[in-house]
Design the sequence.
């Protein structure tokens, strides 16, 4: 049975036993809730920036309190398979997460330049995502500001929990819906994400090539700088 939750301004969530979750434990739970597939301890450790034993202890506590479930991964050789962890009550997964993970794996295996190809694929994906937004045309002197705002909204839709500054220019991505793929192929996954940003800007008539993405700029987050200049909206 899943325990009831109680969110408040204190940033804690209580179990059915009344025990509050620490900010770190809550963060780990939310990372798992955002995943479309079960996740390994190794992947969570890479993202969180904590010692493996610390993450394991938090997972065990979350399991005991009823927030998580776990199962053994399929054996791929000698030794005991790793545990796969998943939340009982996950956030509604975005179709993006599974597709991006599959794309990263394919590029890693088959591409001569997987990072370059990841960016190219991401650009096409970003154009498609931006093109599906049912919004009014960008107008006025603040068109770039409007474009950045729409990109932040799009990132929220696909599961990144962006935390932007007032200008939507410096954005912290505080949740990763691709923990497992990002831990195995970080350059490829981040290349896809950067391409999505560039493609979204292009679909709205801007050149976003100067935008930058710094993976794991701090434990549990990536830093995105949204930069764009006016450009002709031509197909890439």
Sequence:
């Amino acid at each position: 049975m899943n325990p009831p939750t109680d969110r408040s301004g204190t940033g804690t969530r209580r179990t059915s036993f009344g025990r509050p979750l620490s900010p770190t434990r809550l963060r780990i739970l939310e990372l798992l809730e955002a995943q479309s597939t079960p996740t390994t301890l190794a992947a969570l450790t890479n993202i969180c920036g904590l010692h493996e034993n610390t993450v394991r202890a938090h997972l065990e506590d979350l399991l005991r309190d009823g927030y998580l479930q776990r199962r053994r991964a399929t054996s791929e050789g000698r030794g005991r398979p790793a545990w796969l962890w998943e939340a009982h009550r996950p956030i509604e997964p975005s179709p993006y997460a599974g597709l991006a993970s599959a794309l990263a794996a394919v590029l890693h295996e088959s591409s001569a330049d997987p990072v370059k190809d990841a960016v190219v694929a991401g650009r096409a994906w970003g154009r498609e995502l931006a093109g599906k937004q049912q919004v009014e045309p960008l107008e006025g002197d603040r068109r770039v500001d409007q474009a950045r705002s729409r990109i932040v909204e799009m990132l929220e839709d696909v599961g990144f929990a962006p935390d932007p500054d007032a200008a939507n220019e410096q954005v912290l991505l505080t949740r990763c819906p691709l923990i497992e793929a990002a831990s195995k192929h970080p350059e490829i996954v981040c290349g896809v994400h950067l391409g999505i940003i560039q493609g979204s800007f292009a679909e709205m008539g801007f050149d976003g090539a100067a935008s930058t993405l710094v993976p794991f700029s701090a434990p549990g987050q990536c830093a995105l700088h949204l930069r764009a200049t006016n450009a002709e909206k031509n197909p890439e």
About this structure: Residues 1-12, 14-18 have pLDDT under 50 and may be disordered. Residues 161 and 175 are 5 Å apart (CA to CA).
